[in-house]
Specification:
heterotetramer, A: 339 residues, alpha/beta, Rossmann fold, TATA-Binding Protein, eight-stranded mixed sheet, 12 helices, 14 strands, globular, B: 76 residues, alpha+beta, Ubiquitin-like (UB roll), five-stranded mixed sheet, nucleotidyltransferase activity (chains A, C), ThiF/MoeB/HesA (chains A, C), ubiquitin-like modifier activating enzyme activity (chains A, C)
C-alpha cells in the first residue's frame, strides 16, 4: 500500500484492509456536471480501482462556478465534460483506471455500462435517468447513491438492493417539474455538501462497512441552516415494480421513456415526456427570464431562445427544439429546463 | 398540537420554518390540501415525514407528531 | 455581470447585487492544506475579488487523497502548497486576484496580512494559529470562520465581532492534544463537508446576507451519521480578554506563543508550547506507530523518526526536532503531531 | 431521566451513540468526572451542550435535559 492513502488507512473503519477493497472496486458515475465532477474527483483521490464516467454535455462558462474538475480553458474549447473530466483526473492520479464516455445515459447504454460495476453514483440532473438507474440497480444487484441539489438545498439517499427501499418505493411516480439549477440557481457549497454525503456513503460501500450506511434520506439547506434525516426503512414496498416480488423494471421499458425524434428536413428535434404533464407557463417563464433568456408565450405555448437554439414548449410537456438535429443535445436542453 | 416544518423553497413560501397547528386526525393528503390552499403551495410531489420517518399520503397524523415537508430535487 | 456566475446570481438571496458585493471583497485563507485548497477553490469559483493564501508546507504524496487543488506533479516536485494552489486557481479563473504567500502564519504575519481583508477563512491544523486569528478578528473587526476535521468528523463556526461570541469565549483555553489528521486519519468527504459549511457562510458574509449566518457551532460525523447544531449566543463573555470590554488580545502577546529556537551547531530546533502540557505517551505512540513511524520511548521521553527528521517529545510538551534548522518546518512537524 | 449523547470518537469509546441516565442536579463538571471514570474517557477539553445549547462546566442539569459531548477538533 502506498504512502498516498496513509491518512485514509489510518482512519480505523477503513484501515489497510478497507483500502484494498476500495482498490478492487469499479464505480460508474452517471453525469460529469457539478455532482459528477465532485464525486469523480473524490473517488479518484480515494483510490478506487476503476471509474467509468458518462456525460453528454460540453463545458460551458456558467459551469465553472461549481464544477470542480473544469478549468477556464475547458470552457473556451467547449470540451466534452467526460473528456475534460478524464484529463484532470489523470493529472490528479495515475493509479486509477479512468474510462470516460461522451454520450447519453439511456437505459440501454446504462445496462451495457453496468457490467462488472460495484456501485453507481448518481450525478444526473433529472429523474428520468435516476429511475432508469434505480431499475438497473435492482436488476443487476448494484447499490446506487442518489444525490441532487438546487439553490442552497440538497439531498442524498443510499439504495442497496435487498436491504433498503428503492427510489420507486419512495416516489411512486416521477416528480413533475422539479426545480433545476438552470431555473432555481445553485451555490457551489450545496454541491460540495451533496458530494460529501455521496462520497462518504460510497467509501462505506466500497470498503464494505455495510453497518455504517445511512438508512435515511438526508436533506439540508445551507442557507436556511436546515438539516434532517428522514428514515425510509418502512417504505419498502413488496408490490414495487422495481424491487418487489413481481418486477417489471418499468423504467427500462420503452413506453416509459422520453421520446425524442428528429423532424426530417427541419433541423428540429421533438421531445415527448413519458407521461403527459400539465405545465404552468408563468412560473417557468419568470425563472427563465431572470436567467436572461428571451421568453415569449401565449396560452398554448412558450418559446425560449437559448444559445442558438429555440425551445417551444407545449402545455402537455411536449417540446420542439429548433436549431439542432442532435437527439442527446435536445434532451439535454429539455431536461435542464424541465428537471 | 403539531409542529409542521417546511424545507427549502417551501419555507420561503410559508414565510416561516415551522408553524404550530392542531392537525391530528388528518391524513397527510388532507394536510397537504389544507396547506396548499392556505399558503398557495404546490405539494403534489412533495415528500412528507412524520417524526423523521417517511410518511405516505394516507398516514394519519397523531397529536404531538412533527410533520416535515421536503421537496424532492432534481438538479445536479 | 458575466454569464460565468449566472447560476449563482439566479439564487435569489445573492442575485446580481450580491454578486457585485462578493466581487468587491478580499478573503484571507490561512492554510492551503485540505480545508485551504477546498475553500480557496470555492471562493475563486464564486468570484470573490481577491484571495490571499498563506501556507508554510509543500505538497506531499499523502496530501493527494484529499487536497483538491493539487495534482500528482505537485507532489513529485515538492511544490510549496501556496504556490501550487495559486497555479491551479489561475487555471480555474483569470477573474480573481490571487496572492499566495509561502510562510508561517505567525501572529505578526497575520496582522500584516489582515489589512483590507473582509473575511478570514480558517484552514489551519492547530488551535494556536486559530486563537491568533480570533484575536486579530476582534482587533480589526473582521469576521472569521472556524473549520476543522479529523477522521469522518468535522465542525465549523462563524465568528462575527460585535455579534457572536468569539472562540476564546467558548474554549477559554486551548484544547490540549486534539486529534489531528496525522494521528487520527481523515477521509476526503469530511473535508468537503467542512468546506461546504465554511464556504456557504462565507458567501452569506461576502454578499452581506447577515441574517442568514448560522448562529451555532455545527458538528457532524459522516461515518457515524451524526449532525448537530449547538447554539452559542449565550456564551458571549463580557470579561473575555479577546472580545470583552477590557481586551488584551492575549494570543497576540509573545508570552502566549509557541517558542521555537534553533539550537546552535546541532541542526536541531527546540519547540516549547505556550503552557506546559502533561502528555500521555502511550496513546500518541500507538497512533504514530499505526501510521508507520518508528517510535521509541521511555518514561521520560518519546522519540519519533519521520521523513529524515527525529522528534523527541518530553512529558511537558517540549520537543526537540533534530535534522532541521528551519523554524517553520519544525513547528509544522510539531503541530501535525500535537494539533 | 436524561439522554447523554456522544459525538465522534467518544461514541466509539462509550460503545453507543447515547445512554439514558438520571443525572439531574449534577453539574456538567460532575457528569464529566462520572463519565470519565465509567468509560475511561478524557473529557477535560470536550465541549458540552444541554438541549443543543453550549453549556459551561458549572451548568446544572435539569430533569429531561439532553446532554451532548462534542470534542473540539484541530485537523484541517
Amino acid at each position: 500500500m502506498s504512502e498516498r492513502y496513509s491518512r485514509q488507512t489510518l482512519f480505523p473503519p477503513i484501515g489497510k484492509e478497507g483500502q484494498e477493497k476500495i482498490r478492487s472496486k469499479h464505480v460508474l458515475i452517471v453525469g460529469a456536471g457539478a455532482l459528477g465532477s465532485g464525486n469523480a474527483e473524490l473517488m479518484a483521490r480515494s483510490g478506487a480501482g476503476k471509474l467509468t464516467i458518462i456525460d453528454r454535455d460540453y463545458v460551458e462558462e456558467s459551469n465553472l462556478q461549481r464544477q470542480q474538475l473544469f478549468a477556464e480553458s475547458d470552457a473556451l474549447e467547449k470540451m466534452p465534460k467526460a473528456a475534460a473530466a478524464e484529463k484532470r483526473l489523470k493529472q490528479i492520479t495515475s493509479e486509477v483506471e479512468i474510462r470516460s464516455i461522451i454520450g447519453d445515459a439511456t437505459p440501454e447504454k446504462l445496462e451495457e455500462l453496468a457490467e462488472g460495476v460495484d456501485l453507481i453514483l448518481d450525478s444526473t440532473d433529472n429523474f428520468e435517468t435516476r429511475m432508469a438507474i434505480n431499475d438497473i440497480s435492482q436488476k443487476f444487484d448494484i447499490p446506487w447513491i442518489y444525490g441532487a441539489c438546487v439553490g442552497s438545498f440538497g439531498m442524498s439517499m443510499t439504495i442497496i438492493p435487498g436491504k433498503t427501499p428503492c427510489m420507486n418505493c419512495l416516489l411512486k411516480k416521477i416528480p413533475i417539474q422539479g426545480m433545476t439549477c438552470d431555473t432555481g440557481g445553485i451555490i457551489a457549497p450545496a454541491v460540495q455538501m451533496v458530494v460529501a454525503h455521496q462520497a462518504a456513503e460510497a467509501l462505506k460501500i466500497l470498503s464494505e462497512n455495510w453497518e455504517s450506511v445511512r438508512n435515511a434520506m438526508v436533506s439540508f439547506d445551507l442557507w436556511r441552516n436546515q438539516y434532517t434525516n428522514m428514515k425510509v426503512s418502512k417504505v419498502k414496498d413488496e408490490g414495487c415494480l422495481s424491487c418487489g416480488k413481481e418486477r417489471t423494471y418499468p423504467y427500462l421499458q420503452p413506453e416509459n421513456m422520453m421520446k425524442s425524434t428528429v423532424l426530417c428536413g427541419r433541423d428540429t428535434v421533438q421531445i415527448r415526456p413519458p407521461k403527459e404533464l400539465e405545465i404552468e407557463y408563468t412560473e417557468i417563464a419568470q425563472q427563465l427570464k431572470s436567467l436572461g433568456y428571451q421568453v415569449k408565450g401565449n396560452p398554448y405555448l412558450l418559446s425560449v431562445e437559448m444559445e442558438g437554439q429555440r425551445l417551444v414548449l407545449f402545455k402537455d410537456g411536449r417540446a420542439l427544439i429548433h436549431g439542432t438535429k442532435d437527439l442527446a443535445q435536445a434532451k439535454s436542453i429539455y431536461q435542464r429546463i424541465m428537471g | 398540537m403539531n409542529k409542521i416544518m417546511f424545507f427549502a423553497h417551501l419555507r420561503d413560501s410559508v414565510g416561516e420554518e415551522s408553524v404550530t397547528k392542531d392537525v391530528s386526525g388528518k391524513t397527510i393528503a388532507e394536510l397537504k390540501q389544507m396547506l396548499a390552499e392556505e399558503y398557495e403551495l404546490k405539494l403534489d410531489s412533495v415528500m412528507a415525514a412524520v417524526n423523521e420517518e417517511f410518511a405516505s399520503d394516507d398516514e394519519v397524523i397523531q397529536d404531538g407528531d412533527t410533520v416535515a415537508f421536503i421537496p424532492p430535487v432534481s438538479g445536479g
